[in-house]
Amino acid sequence: MSGLVLKLSPKERVLINGAVIENGDRRSRLAIMTPDAHILRLRDALHPEDAKTPVRRVCYALQLVLSGDSKPNEAYLQLLRQVEELSQVFTDADSRAVLAEASAAIIGAQHYRAMKALRSLFPREDRLMAVGMM
């Protein structure tokens, strides 16, 4: 079993099963061998007050699954529903591809991959919000 390999920058923090761990002064690699461990890079984390837009709310919900604050099976349908709602606004081909990737990742219980895909929509969402379309 290979597990998950985290490559951490100096002083980077990561949340593993509720414990915040900070890397030392050098780059390092950690192999997480425990399946279903709750892991969240804190550099990717959103603060609750920053989850004010539709895409950020979905990313925050995914973050709660990653941190262990929400159970994946309980969040599953809501996450898929939220991604489907986003597809009503993001109708261009590139955004549709991102949303399809996020949906597939959620279905496959790859929540970090889904969050990473959705984060790529932040600039588009910001532009839409600036012109008042959302």
Task: Characterise this structure.
- By secondary structure, the chain is of the alpha+beta class.
- It folds into two domains: 4-43, no CATH class; 46-130, no CATH class.
- The protein is 47% helix and 16% strand.
- It is built from five helices and five strands; from the N terminus they run E-E-E-E-E-H-H-H-H-H.
- The strands form two sheets. Strands 3-2-5 form a three-stranded antiparallel sheet. Strands 1-4 form a two-stranded antiparallel ribbon.
- A hairpin with a 2-residue loop joins strand 2 (13-16) and strand 3.
- Helix 1 packs antiparallel against helix 4 (111-119) and helix 3 (93-107) packs antiparallel against helix 4 (111-119).
What is the compact description of this entry?
The protein is built from five helices and five strands. Strand 2 and strand 3 form a beta hairpin. Helix 2 packs antiparallel against helix 3.
- Total beta strands: 5
How much helicity do the residues have?
40-55%
Q: What general outline do the C-alpha atoms trace?
A: globular
Largest sheet: number of strands, sense, barrel closure:
3 strands, antiparallel
Mean pLDDT: 91
Q: Could you tell me the strand content as a percent range?
A: 15-25%
Number of helices: 5
Poorly predicted runs are: none
**Main sheet: which strands, in order across?**
3-2-5
Number of domains: 2
> What structural class do the secondary elements suggest?
alpha+beta
> For the terminal residues, how far apart are their CA atoms?
45 Å
The H-and-E topology, N to C, reads as EEEEEHHHHH
Radius of gyration of CA atoms, rounded to a whole number: 16 Å
